[in-house]
Write a structure and sequence with these properties.
alpha+beta; Heat Shock Protein 90; five-stranded mixed sheet; two-stranded antiparallel ribbon; 7 strands; 20% strand; globular
């Protein structure tokens, strides 16, 4: 991607948690001025701000590791636990924008071999893309579903939205650097996500269906199941 791509990728990754922090802070300020927030609600929002601040710090830390040619912190991870964490990260944003986030998580899911922060980056990219796609969707249909399941020796994660669908003829370009259908997008989120997923030997893809005026888009990616050798090496 070169130096320009590296800077664009960094801007995209840092902008996500910073934008969330700004949105949380703006929302709190409005509610405090209107006297419409209680202590428990305030605590929850501040915890979300802290979580996104920590995530921004982790992204910077990982950038330093990359510059020093260090390997990611790969280990057996509980994918369902990380999905729950991400759903909590976006809960306030979802509530403000009237989106419903549904989780369909497979029981007894084995550990996946991944870096927790990298996994969260990929999933957050897909969730926020889904939110953006549903801005013009009627409120009752603003539903985003995250699913997990095991497929052979892989864990499959899917994010399904009910937005405007994929632009015609763009499915093959979605994961290319600098390709975007958003007016203010950098076109790096899906390219970065593909790079992360493929670094584990997984794959990522998208499909979109349309029935009348309603559309459904599903992004899916896979990660390898952690083997006994992975687990013993991690110890």
């Amino acid at each position: 991607m070169g130096l320009v791509g590296a800077y664009a990728g960094l801007a995209h990754e840092i902008n996500q948690p910073l934008a969330a922090i700004a949105a949380y802070a703006d929302g709190v300020a409005i509610r405090i001025r209107n006297g419409a927030i209680d202590d428990q609600r305030l605590i929850a929002v501040v915890e979300n701000i802290a979580a996104d601040a920590h995530r921004a710090g982790e992204i910077i830390r990982r950038l330093r590791q990359f510059v020093r040619n260090r390997e990611p912190d790969r280990a057996p991870v509980d994918i369902n636990r990380l999905v729950l964490d991400v759903s909590q990260f976006v809960a306030s944003d979802a509530a403000q924008r009237q989106f419903r986030v549904q989780l369909e998580l497979a029981e007894d899911l084995p550990s996946a071999w991944s870096d927790a922060i990298e996994f969260q980056q990929v999933l957050l990219n897909l969730v926020r893309n889904g939110f953006d796609a549903m801005v013009d969707t009627p409120v009752d249909d603003r539903r985003l579903t995250i699913r997990t399941k095991q497929v052979a020796e892989s864990i499959e994660v899917s994010v399904e939205d009910h937005g405007h669908g994929l632009p015609s003829g763009t499915k093959e370009q979605l994961f290319e650097a600098f390709f975007t259908s958003k007016e203010e997008g950098l076109g790096m989120g899906l390219a970065i996500s593909r790079s992360i997923v493929e670094s584990y030997g997984g794959r990522i893809w998208a499909a979109s269906t349309k029935m009348g005026t309603k559309a459904c888009t599903r992004f899916q990616f896979t990660l390898p199941v952690a083997t006994d050798d992975d687990i013993s090496h991690d110890r």
